[in-house]
Amino acid sequence: MNTDVVEKIAKKASNLPVEAQRKALEYVESLEREETAERKPFRSVLGILADRNVHISEEDIAEMRGDACRNFPREEPN
User: Fold this and answer.
1) In whole angstroms, what is the distance from residue 49 CA to residue 54 CA?
2) Residue 69: pLDDT above 80?
């Protein structure tokens, strides 16, 4: 914990009106909840589709990549 930052926050908060202090406290509490919340692990696209019985082959990927790049400009436009 950085005590300088904590002291600066406390000093600035003490100069605010009571309602603004309450809002600041709510904000700090929301930050605290975010930090302590259990984060869901990232799932890849294939992981998300795994339970939907979707199968993407290497050929499918190559075809889509070719379709996406086919009209991509090869030179800088003037």
Assistant:
1) 6
2) yes
Rounded CA-CA distance 16/13 in Å is 5
Interatomic CA distance for residues 11 and 60, integer angstroms: 60
The amino acid that residue 18 corresponds to is: V
Domain ranges of the chain: 3-36
Q: How many helices (H) and strands (E) does the chain have?
A: 4, 0
Q: What does the buried/exposed string (b/e) look like for 29-48 if buried means 16 or more CB atoms within 10 Å of the residue's CB?
A: eeeeeeeeeeeeeeeeeeee
- Considering the entire predicted model, what is its pTM? 0.46
pLDDT digits (tens, 9 = 90+) for 16-66: 999 999 999 999 999 998 888 877 777 777 677 777 887 788 999 999 998
